[in-house]
Recover the amino acids of this structure.
């Protein structure tokens, strides 16, 4: 049995703040490693804001060396300009991940809430509460950092069964996603 | 007088096709270097599509070594999902550019048309026609490649005067943009 932990980097992209969380997973145990927020200067040119996101994610990967990444799928806003900006921030974050050849998985907010709280309609505070509980944190992390940890936990929780099946040869990885044969 | 050419990489981001064009600029002369299209597999997971964009731009920068980049500002679509996808593709392209520390400038479609054709309401064919004329091309490049060349030309045309002022010390670069002192 494999007892080496898998390190997961979770990212919650936003146009102003990108949350991140790093956890270690061994079997059904989860351990907190790090979390935080990447804040972009709101009045800076777009290229500069993109650079802030990319360089911070580069630094996080260099410091913590995750093996997999999980990224929250963003809410499509009714405001087209806001949606475009959010898309650009998310695209930059994904670019920084794939440039390091990190297998990258996506989860919707619904999937995150279902995995972490057990129901898709959970409030943001419930997600934060469960993140604190599951990782035995001594304090509550910032909302965006908690979302980064939540998406990392989601990836871990949804793939316990899959990882076991993989080891038994019942699954294959295709295009970076698990698929049942 | 500086007679060494400046090499500019122009990028026209799209959710399915990202056009690029590379030109050399010496004084008021423009020379074609390269152009083409980066096509992303439409049914692949987003991370894979982002990887295609980032890796192709990486290869283009390695092959042609541009000194500056110009990126077209995209049209905000009425369809939020399409806008988000376009934003993500554009964010990935910008990430690839800033990761190479390329000074990156943005131009709207209106600015491109005004610079290349002389009027903001020019048809797409007129832009293509002027790109062929200005770079003395023997054939017409694909639409997206022509748009990449057009945004590179726009950056060259709009900065002739600025570049001259820069050499005289009348301008400074702040946050990647030219500013009058």
């Amino acid at each position: 049995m494999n007892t080496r932990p898998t390190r997961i980097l979770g990212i919650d992209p936003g146009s102003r703040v990108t949350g991140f969380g790093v956890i270690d997973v061994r079997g059904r145990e989860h351990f907190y490693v790090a979390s935080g927020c990447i804040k972009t200067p709101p009045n800076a040119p777009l290229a500069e804001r993109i650079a802030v996101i990319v360089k911070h994610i580069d630094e996080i990967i260099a410091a913590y060396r995750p093996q997999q990444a999980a990224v929250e799928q963003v809410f499509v806003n009714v405001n087209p300009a806001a949606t475009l900006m959010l898309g650009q921030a998310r695209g930059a974050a994904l670019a920084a991940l794939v440039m390091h050849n990190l297998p990258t998985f996506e989860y919707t907010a619904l999937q995150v809430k279902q995995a972490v709280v057990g129901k898709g309609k959970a409030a943001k505070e419930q997600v934060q509460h469960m993140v604190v509980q599951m990782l035995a944190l001594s304090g509550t992390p910032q909302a965006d950092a908690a979302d980064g940890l939540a998406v990392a936990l989601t990836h871990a929780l949804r793939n316990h069964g899959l990882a076991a099946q993989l080891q038994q040869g019942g699954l294959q990885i295709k295009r970076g996603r698990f698929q049942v044969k």
